[in-house]
Fold this sequence. Notes:
Elements: H1 2-33, E1 36-44, E2 53-55, E3 59-68, E4 74-83, E5 89-99, E6 103-112, E7 120-130, E8 133-145, E9 154-158, E10 163-164, E11 169-175, E12 179-186, E13 192-193, E14 198-200, E15 206-216, E16 221-230, E17 236-243, E18 247-249, E19 253-262, E20 268-276, E21 279-289, E22 294-302, E23 309-317, E24 330-339, H2 352-360, H3 385-393
Parallel strand pairs: 2-8, 10-16, 18-24
Antiparallel strand pairs: 1-3, 3-6, 4-5, 4-7, 7-8, 9-11, 11-14, 12-13, 12-15, 15-16, 17-19, 19-22, 20-21, 20-23, 23-24
Amino acid sequence: MKRLCKVNLRYAFILILISLLLKLSLSSQAMGATDISITNFYPCDALGIPQDSFPKKTTSYFNISVKNVGQAPRSISIHLTVQDEVDAPVGVDQFDTTIYPNVSMYHIMSIVIPKCVFVGLATAYASVFADGIAVGSASTRFRIEPEDLTSPVIRILSPQNSTYSTPSVPLVFTVNKRTTWLGYRLGGPKNVTIPGNATLTGLVYGSYYITVYANDTSGNMGRAESYFTVLIVHDVAVIELKCSSVRVYKEQTVNISILVQNQGTAPETFNVTTYGNTSAIKTLTITNLAPSNQTTLVFTWNTSSFSYGNYTITAVANTVSGEVDIADNRFTGSFVRVCIPGDITGNGLVDSEDLGILANAWGASKGELSYVPEADINSDGTVDSADLGTMMAHWGESE
């Protein structure tokens, strides 16, 4: 008998323990269920922007936000159902995911509204299940409208029916309805998809016909047309030329400053070449000079390979594609004389007259009254024996 009582007590203890474990398990599930909640639920468009009505034969969208305040990831299932004004079912949608601890997430769910439903106020219901247990629900109202058969109205603000003088023209337009697709066609067989206002680039001289298209959320397409002309002016010009000296001894250098301007309406890349008489001195390139802008080029002319004598300095900008006014592409400046080293007078002969001038300037440095730049033959800032030596090396030479 005592042994039987001990066995019964043992079974009773086991039953009580199982009961407690079941209660703890259920309590734990209940506590876990409260970790998940719906924090927001509203009708919207495909991007999540609130929208309170949808026509028949379109897709209705709903933004559902869910939060997990627990300490463990949870597998959840979101169920969406819609009923029309007379509580007839419109459609259902379901989304399964995992939500991590201390995370808020949203998902946009959708239901296609068929043609057969009633027009009027409809109700959408959202339910969230975590591990098979319903943990939250919410509802929202929206309006089902009659089927939309009206095409969107497009108004093109730019380009207008006018003439433009640049290779880029802004495309600006308005649409009076929500859209699912926007695009345009510009003289070609294919449409170009755009997110909204855009810029037409790479335009050349000519007349253009542009069509802008828009599809609304009901699948209706609208279109609008505009005509415009592009008249691009290509015109570059050399407007100034300056030399750092009008006399230079052979093998010395002269700086030639050239001021160039883009007088057209499009950015230009082109070469500029300087000449001494008909001999090319140097070529430099200007890249993407903007319309109406100017730039200065400095050419360093080494006279070593040039003969003695007078040189007329000319700068020439090459003709760019489509340029008509080419008269101002050439600019002729003053002449520069290349002299024999020691020909201080510039008369084409190194003789006693030059020696007399050097003697009078002997020992003078740049900045002093007696300093003569031409007597400083090596251009080191002082008239001295080095200059005399150069003169003697060319003594008696003539051009």
